[in-house]
UniProtKB/TrEMBL annotation:
Pfam families: Glyco_tran_28_C, MGDG_synth. The keyword Transferase applies. GO terms for molecular function: transferase activity. CDD domains: GT28_Beta-DGS-like. This is UDP-N-acetylglucosamine--LPS N-acetylglucosamine transferase. It comes from Clostridium simiarum. It comes from the Bacteria. Keywords: Glycosyltransferase, Transferase. Residues 14-179 form the Diacylglycerol glucosyltransferase N-terminal domain. It is found in: Membrane. Residues 204-333 form the Glycosyl transferase family 28 C-terminal domain. Its main location: membrane.
Length: 370
């Protein structure tokens, strides 16, 4: 089987979902030829730098404006038209790639690439089936387009919402957001903590802000240091070297044993060995936490999709809300003291997790290519 996965590296989540699908396909599909393409970067690296750079800058410096655009795009046809025109120009650039690779099926994990594929199918430039895998806990109009053969969504609630938006229910599969197979493997806590030089018998808090190390992490760490309880901290800074240096300095004035980690592909290990995850609510991060049965304390949600993710978590008692994280000392302390609430949140995580998402997506691929 030849499988082509199109994505866009706007943050780590979309690409991580693509890599998770690839990893599951390699486990379950014999004679597999699979390619992941960072779509805009493939079309034009300079354009990718401009678009993705502007996007990341806007959510960092002007999150409220980004949130307004997110909500505006749900109802404004003009903004959707501009996006469609841009994607139509871009879509023609990936025709040679698709023709050369000649996939049996195409998967998209980003709304840009999803719309490009919709455009190409409407023009009969491609005839192979297309699956769009949504990477958040609420749909948005940017994801929904004609000629997409199947949608994979995170929850049953999303599937119902997609039907309200006019998508044929038979085309929507509430399998969940796929995570890497490594998250399905249990870790030996003692050995892992020995590697980290931390105590396996001590309460462990995991602090992170996605692959970009975004959010008010430094202030949250300062708040954690004030809590008069015995626990240790693992802080993952992603690609944010400035944050890495700042946290290393902050640990010098903290009595909490702390392990600072930069960019890592071993997030599964850190999650499996933690008792509470303190994080921004990115879609992939949420899915990884649920599969790890790891309760969340969420902060610095980006207006728009991350706020929708936060709504899902809070509605189902999977997380507590720290707001911007500026004044979260007592919220976290109260949660850590309340073992019953932590246990309930952990059980809720297990209930809402979708550990078979990757495997089910591969079964869907097989069924659609028979």
């Amino acid at each position: 089987m030849k499988l082509l996965i199109l994505s866009v590296s706007a943050g780590g989540g979309h690409i991580n979902a693509a890599e998770a699908i690839k990893a599951h396909a390699e486990l379950y599909v014999p004679d597999l030829d699979v390619e992941i393409i960072d779509t805009i970067k493939y079309i034009n690296p300079f354009l990718d730098k401009l678009i993705i750079g502007s996007y990341l800058k806007s959510i960092k410096l002007y999150p409220s404006i980004f949130g307004m655009l997110y909500n505006f795009a749900e109802t404004d046809d003009g903004l959707a038209t501009v996006s469609s025109k841009f994607n139509e120009l871009m879509a023609n650039k990936i025709i040679p790639l698709i023709d050369d690779f000649n996939p049996d099926i195409i998967i998209s994990t980003h709304p840009f690439s999803t719309e490009m594929l919709s455009i190409l199918k409407s023009k009969m430039k491609i005839k192979k089936p297309v699956i769009s895998v949504l990477t958040d806990y609420a749909p948005h109009s940017f994801w929904i387009h004609p000629n997409i053969d199947a949608y994979v969504v995170a929850t049953e609630e999303m599937a119902k919402d997609m039907a309200i938006r006019g998508v044929n229910p038979s085309q929507v599969f509430s399998f969940g957001i796929p995570v890497h197979p490594d998250f399905l493997v249990n870790k030996d806590r003692d050995d892992f903590f020995k590697e980290l030089e931390l105590d396996p018998n001590k309460l462990t808090l995991l602090l992170m802000g996605g692959s970009l190390g975004m959010g008010n992490i430094l202030e949250v760490y300062s708040q954690l240091s004030k809590i008069s309880m015995d626990f240790q901290i693992i802080a993952i800074t992603g690609n944010n070297k400035k944050l890495l240096n700042a946290l290393n300095e902050a640990t010098e004035n903290s009595d909490k044993p702390t392990k600072i980690v930069g960019f890592t592909k071993n997030v599964n290990s850190y999650m499996k060995c933690s008792d509470l995850l303190i994080t921004k609510p990115g879609g992939l991060t949420v899915s990884e936490a649920l599969i790890s049965n790891l309760p969340l304390a969420i902060f610095s949600a980006i207006p728009g999709q991350e706020e929708k993710n936060a709504e899902f978590l809070l509605k189902h008692n999977l997380a507590i809300d720290l707001g911007k994280g500026n004044d979260c000392e007592y919220k976290i302390q109260d949660l850590l003291i309340d073992n019953n609430k932590l246990d309930l949140m952990k059980n809720n995580c297990k209930y809402f997790s979708k550990p078979d998402a990757g495997k089910n997506i591969i079964e869907l691929i097989k069924n659609m290519t028979q």
